[in-house]
Amino acid sequence: MSDEIQVLSAVVADRIAAGEVIERPASIVKELVENALDAGASEIEVAVEAGGRDGVVVRDNGRGMSPGDAERACLRHATSKLREIEDLEGIGSFGFRGEALASIASVSETTVLTRRSSDDAGTRVRIVQGEVAEVVPAGAPVGTQVEVRALFASVPARRKFLRTPQTELGHISDWLQRAALAHPEVAFVFRHGAREVFRHPAVRDAGERLRQVQGAARAGEMLACSGEFGGVRVHGWVSRAGVSYAQSKSILTWVGGRVVRDRVLTRAVLDAYRALMPQGRYPAVVLFLDVPAGGVDVNVHPTKIEVRFADGDAVYGAVLRTVRAALDDGVRAPEAPEPRGGASLVGNSAAAGGEGTIAALARYAERRPAPSAEGERVYRVRGAGSSAQGHVPAQAAMGFTPMASQPPPAHGHECSGEEEHSGFAARVPRFADLRVIGQALNGYIVCEGRDGLVLIDQHAAHERVRFERLRAAAAEELPSQQLLVPAVVALDATALAALRENAEEMQATGFEVESFGKGKVALRAIPASLDVSTDVETLLADLARDLLGAGRAGAAERRRAARDTLIARVACHGAVRIGDPLQLEEMQRLVADLDTIPFAATCPHGRPVLSELPRSEIERRVLR
Ligand code: ADP
Ligand code: MG
């Protein structure tokens, strides 16, 4: 009987391997550009036709290849980068599998034209669907050009999976921009047919490249960050709280200079923004990580876009802390107006002279003690259902705990008018110094800032203040108040399950919920900070919905997220609404209270608390 098992021919094996590595034109661009970077190129030009379906050309001015290497490079497992298996430990170069070119050549017509600076003549190698068709001397500039045509002509099944040229172009462009971000010292040019899609001349640092890639406006919105934790170094840029995007692809991460998509990284980023992002919205993040040698395995995925970290906790911690610190730093109060007839009482000279207007919020705020209990009541809507019973003890009990973890510093950062420190850090902008003009459109507090108007969303602002105070107090269980008559609420099965699953967190937040027959729950107590007249039916439905969206991180992380979710909802339900009338003192109180909390720039659901109308904008509109 003859043997049935056959060793696959090299060409067939390459085509199978190609399926893993070469999924679409963008994969080709990725592999070729990585090779160009590995070859030390300082200029890389990419030209594609019909989204790469009809052709991809990558040209570099790197070190080039010898005639022999040029041919070998297109054969399976040819690589100059891996001599010893130990080399697998290093991730210094982008590729070391030695199969990218061979894979590409096995499913296309590939022409490599290359010359080293030490050679007089260059070499042209042509491979047609995996078979060497031509190896000849040829004139060529120093460097390498790889041209790929007739992609997947030999595997029509794969060709069918290609999307429209526009979609494929999007993938290529996204990928190239990421490569460009990580390599500011390399010039990138990208053409689609006759059109130049972008051109990024070489620049000195990543900040300049960020401006080239994202545009000055968007780049200017981002906060620089850097940090180290557990041997993991992180640096890059993150969008401010209050800015959000529709897609998670605005989160870009690199490890050791390589684009990486990773759950741990994404989770850490999102957790850093928790309570600063609306549901379903994402921050923009450009983060470069360096992990200690051996700290990451890049060979778990054929295209190396997914990795495995030896110490996921260190990576998570490093990213979370670095991003948090940057967000924290990015929070600054709008600047107060110049007092009439005198120098500004607020702002150190740097802050006052800097952006001129209104940027964000006072970071020093976290260090300030919260105002007294009476403070908050002043801007509670009077009348309007704010019945005193059940409410007053509640206030005495909670919500006014100073940010216990952050006591006010001994050296006064309180920067009140009478404290004339000569030190540069003595004064920072604060909300209390904004001049409250009045309430507009039934829900917006109009203030005058240093060089423009500031509009504060009264609901979002109050919600944020309540949220931060509740969160500070929630280290302990939050106090609750018994309802005189338990409220029985009917909910659907998913909602009930969500509440049941988070029973412990519900209780810690001040809710007492019991099941009450089929499809119903009885609510016996609610957080003390809520008004007894709260519409509990809506509240429970909202809570259940929030909890469902709260994600599936690890147990401890999930509990924390659930807690924040509940607190955010409680904060929202107890806050003044748009439409509630407020007196001037109430507004002043509320605005000043923004100084006492961190992250005042957004409400807990991530919506911005304030909007600025700079003088320049007003002048532009009136054509001054
Ligand atoms: P790998 O990058 O994993 O080594 P590739 O198939 O991508 O495998 O490339 C094979 C080899 O061909 C590389 O190791 C390198 O020596 C050579 N090579 C490929 N592209 C270039 C280039 N643009 N410039 C110089 N050498 C190249
Ligand atoms: Mg390679």
Tell me what you see in this structure.
With 624 residues, the protein is α+β, with helices and mostly antiparallel strands. Helices cover 32% and strands 21% of the residues. The strands form five sheets. Strands 5-4-3-6-2-1-7-8 form an eight-stranded mixed beta sheet, covered by helices on one side. It has a five-stranded mixed beta sheet with strand order 9-10-13-11-12, sandwiched between helices. Helix 15 (493-501) crosses helix 17. The radius of gyration is 30 Å and the shape is elongated. The termini are far apart. Magnesium ion (MG) binds at residues 31, 34-35, 95, 100.
Short description:
This protein is α+β, with helices and mostly antiparallel strands and 624 residues long.
Largest sheet: 8 strands, mixed
Strand-pairing-aware structural class: alpha+beta
The N- to C-terminal Cα distance equals 96 Å
Q: How would you sum up the global shape?
A: elongated
Into which percentage range does the β-strand content fall? 15-25%
Number of separate strands: 22
Q: Can you count the helices?
A: 20
Rg calc: 30 Å
| Ligands (ions, cofactors included) | adenosine-5'-diphosphate, magnesium ion
